[in-house]
Amino acid sequence: MKALNIIETGYRATLEEQDDPGVWLSYTLKAAGGDVDVLLRGNAVNYAVQGQDSAGLQYGTWQQTQPPRLAENIASMTSKGMTVFIVSEDLQERGLRGVPLVEGLTPVARSELAHLFGRYDQVWHW
Amino acid sequence: MADKKTLTFALMDPPYENARSTTALRLIHIAAKRGYDINVFAYEGSVYLAFAKQKPHPNAMHGRNIEEENHVLTKDLVSSLMEETKRNGSKFDWVNCGLCVDERGATEAVEGVRRGSPGDFLKMAEASDNTLVIGTRG
Q1: Residue ranges of the domains in chain A?
Q2: Nearest residue on chain A to B135, alpha-carbon basis
Q3: B23 CA to chain A: closest CA distance, Å?
């Protein structure tokens, strides 16, 4: 079974989880033997932007020593053989054209999404 | 049901926050009524849907005591859905994501709920006719 995980909500609990729950799940499903790819759309396209740094968060004396590293998480998925699609128009609308992104992403136009979904047995929208 | 079908639901929202949780449980109810075998993978805050320590409360605004109020506890809905599927001769498998349980301290779940991992979700989805993910929306 080939599944596509669509991740659309950006920065959902990333400070508490120290990653994104949809990204983490995708990676973990792949590690468990699943045939899973990912589509970043909406605000989640920002996960692919290099140079993000959320270090330094502090509450009282508690300091976060392991901040989320979302771009690295995305890169680790592509290096594991997962295809990570990213919606081109969503990048454009957020002014992210030309901004350095992690390598190995597969851009896809909104008009191509229906065909893309048809290539998967199941499509999960997180 | 000659051609019994299996549906998997992946949930993400905690109870008492928005309508997605009760809508998800309504969809599961319909599937149970129709005799489907049902799998649920409770991810993130949705592990609290089956939290055994939920307690009802009276409601002064409604002018009702605890018995009259008959407060909705999602743990009871989960148990009731399990009973419904059993009555129909169907299977019901509810898996709480173990790491999600640990980080929330939601270790006590109603009977019939088991602890698992994304690997269980993968097996559920692979063995299902279809899977519906109802994720949290920001």
Answers
A1: 2-49+69-125
A2: A126
A3: 16
Contact A70, A23 (CB under 8 A): yes
Strand order in the sheet with B37-42: B113-116, B92-97, B37-42, B6-11, B130-134
Report pTM. 0.89
Tokens of A3: 């599944």
Residue numbers of B between 6 and 35 with CB closer than 8 Å to A: 10, 12
A48 with A101: CB under 8 angstroms?
yes
The answer, for A68 touching chain B at a CB cutoff of 8 Å, is no
**What pLDDT is recorded for position B138?**
74
What kind of architecture, by CATH, is found in domain A2-49+69-125? 3-Layer(aba) Sandwich (3.40)
The H or E element spanning position B85 is helix B74-87
Q: B117: which 2 tokens?
A: 């991992």
Chain B: closest CA distance from residue A44 (Å): 11
B60 burial class (0-12, 13-18, 19+ CB within 10 angstroms)? exposed
pLDDT digits (tens, 9 = 90+) for A35-90: 999 999 999 999 999 999 999 999 888 899 999 999 999 999 999 999 999 999 99
pLDDT digits (tens, 9 = 90+) for B50-96: 999 999 999 888 899 999 999 999 999 999 999 999 999 999 999 99
